[in-house]
Amino acid sequence: MYVTIGSLFLQTVKKYGKEEALVDSERNIRWTYEQWNHEVNRLANALLDAGVKKGDRVSTFLFNTVELGTLFFSCAKIGAVLNPINFRLKSNEIAYIIEDAKPSIFVFEKMLEPVVSAIQENYPEVSFWSIDEGAPAYAESYTQHLRLSSDREPAVDVDENDLYAIMYTSGTTGRPKGVMHRHRSMVEQSLMCGASLHLKQKDRGLVVAPMFHCAELHCSFLPRVHFGATNVILHHFEPKKVLETIQNEKISLFFAAPTMWNMILQEDYSRYDRSSLRVGLYGAAPMAPSLVTAVKNQLGINLIQAYGMTEMGPAVTFLDEHEQLAKVGSAGRAAINHEVRVVRPNEHGPSEPEDVLPSGEVGEIIVKGPSMMMGYYNRPDASETAMYKGWYHSGDLGYMDEENYLFVSDRVDDMIISGGENVYPREVEDAIHGHNAVLDVAVLGQPDEKWGEVVTAVIVKKSSITAEELDRYCKESPNLADYKRPRKYLFVDELPRNASGKIQKFRLREQFQVKSNT
């Protein structure tokens, strides 16, 4: 039988038991793999004692904590299905997930208590556990459950093809769907990411992106455990705290979404010792070429890009360190054991996998590989459409160059058609992002009687800039044809993003009442 996530953890414990495994310096926690395994077993047995059976869902509503890291492996050892929930969600959104996933246990922390308190009485069948002291009356104490349980290895038969987690998509277009992943799929993802990042046992990785999201959980946190490295947890992202922790904990690598890298660059990073850093991983959203160059030149960090989606675990392509400037703008080539195609979009149903487009021609990106989801939970029709003929249909637009490097243009739903010409928002965003006064940008289509749609740019300023100055900049840009130039500029304090850092354009469309293809 192939290894499961639980047995993977136990293998690492046996090989590297005395090595430092998990650190939270704010809480003065430093566990070796042996110590962490005792905690994992205590929690696994506490869940069993509470009546959790193989296949039952355990929901977590937590920031980055040692408890979430421990729950990850405790659930895996007993065959419980982990359901990590976005800590940014509101009460009604949490209620939707509870009603869909139907968890037996819901674990939360004090900072998120108001959201849970607003809905908990509607779910008497769910056992709510608080990880903090002074739990509310409706909740049980996580700590007390651990205190009363055994640290023996739980005796539950878990198979490689068993369901390991249900991860709800962040939602760039609306209601989230529960993505189902099996144990073997995520072990494959872990091996692939570890190899692509050249992981070593002596690496010290920073956990700062949200752990409920697969980019952190499967591309960073799990591979480091797989290779016997150390995970240093930060409760949430604060640029100064990131820099302090890199210096104090001698961090060698970490994952951050482009927005996070951009925020780190706004700090006085030269005050901190960053010499331990060897590589940074980015993904979850496109990074403008100007930002890639700035991170490389100003922070002195070698970058690796991963492109993917929750449904694929997530990573399906990588762009290596030595390719960052030579292939700037590319998402890289297909990951180990994965296939990527660009096919002709079909307006009347799923795209045909065999209708492959020639290099340079934009179409829908479809992928397949060992980390593909089992399907969407309780959504058989959506699963069938998404995995048509064994390929995951991403809904992303892109093209391949002659060397089989993938370039992601945009979402199918976001493409703008102006005067019969296709405009891909990302290329306009990349051009505008090159202006020193622009911190963030999103480009949308707005209905127009003459042109069908006109390009509209929503801007977050870094410093003073006017629409006229931006328009002049775009007119002078050698990278932007005139028909792609925005005809309208809107200024906002911030752009709405989901947990993975992707801009939620449907919210901007609602706010500014511009068009929607969905």
Automatic annotation (TrEMBL):
BP-aspect Gene Ontology terms: fatty acid metabolic process
Annotated AMP-binding enzyme C-terminal domain residues: 427-502
Database matches in CDD domains: FACL_FadD13-like
SUPFAM superfamilies tied to this protein: Acetyl-CoA synthetase-like (SSF56801)
One protein family per Pfam: AMP-binding
Domain AMP-dependent synthetase/ligase: 11-377
PANTHER family: ACYL-COA SYNTHETASE, MEDIUM-CHAIN ACYL-COA LIGASE ACSF2, MITOCHONDRIAL
Family to which this protein belongs: Belongs to the ATP-dependent AMP-binding enzyme family.
Official protein name in the record: Fatty acid--CoA ligase
